[in-house]
Amino acid sequence: MAKSNAIHVAVGVIENTDGAIFISRRHQHLHQGDKWEFPGGKVETDESVYDALCRELQEECNIQVTSATPFTVIQFDYPDKSVILDVWHVHSFTGTVHQREGQEWRWVDRSELEAYPFPEANTRIVDLLAK
Ligand SMILES: Nc1nc2c([nH]c(=O)n2[C@H]2C[C@H](O)[C@@H](COP(=O)(O)OP(=O)(O)OP(=O)(O)O)O2)c(=O)[nH]1
Ligand SMILES: [Mg+2]
């Protein structure tokens, strides 16, 4: 059961026309700092998950999402907080992807994803993408 205080997060698995996936590294001072992540962030009150996804991807990686489909939902309890990751597969977008918040970022092949340290909640996302 999801905890009532769980943080609802919109997460985007952005895929380019070569089939590579965008990942970036969380700032050290943040929750799950230094881990790699898929871009995204907290869904605000009165905002749909899709709207949050579009807003966060515009803010964090400079793109306008034009097509995305639900990929998976993960509820996970860290010792210090609970999250619900609402993960979307972003197939098409306009704009040139780059990280706007000074984080390290790169495009990686699906088969390379398992080599990157992701937060524990991401294990199933990476498994689904890698297979
Ligand atoms: N964006 C993102 N967050 C993740 C992933 N995996 C994972 O456990 N999280 C957790 C870490 C955070 O506790 C939470 C998302 O927080 P965030 O720091 O991205 O939220 P935000 O962009 O709205 O940040 P802020 O404006 O509040 O600083 O979800 C992931 O792949 N991507
Ligand atoms: Mg974020």
Automatic annotation (TrEMBL):
Keyword Metal-binding carried by entry: yes
Domain Nudix hydrolase: 6-131
Cofactor: Mg(2+)
E.C. no: 3.6.1.55
Pfam families per record: NUDIX_4
Gene Ontology BP terms: DNA repair; DNA replication
Full protein name: 8-oxo-dGTP diphosphatase
A GO MF label: 8-oxo-GDP phosphatase activity
Originating species: Pseudidiomarina aestuarii
Family matches, as CDD domains: NUDIX_MutT_NudA_like
Residues engaged in binding Mg(2+): 40, 60
EC class (word): hydrolase
Catalytic activity from the UniProt record: 8-oxo-GTP + H2O = 8-oxo-GMP + diphosphate + H(+); 8-oxo-dGTP + H2O = 8-oxo-dGMP + diphosphate + H(+)
Sequence similarity: Belongs to the Nudix hydrolase family.
InterPro entries tied to this protein: Mutator_MutT, MutT-like, MutY_C, Nudix_hydrolase, NUDIX_hydrolase-like_dom_sf, NUDIX_hydrolase_CS, NUDIX_hydrolase_dom
Key words of the record: DNA damage, DNA repair, DNA replication, Hydrolase, Magnesium, Metal-binding, Mutator protein
Binding sites annotated in the UniProt record for 8-oxo-dGTP: 26, 31, 37-40, 122
Entry annotated with the keyword Cytoplasm: no
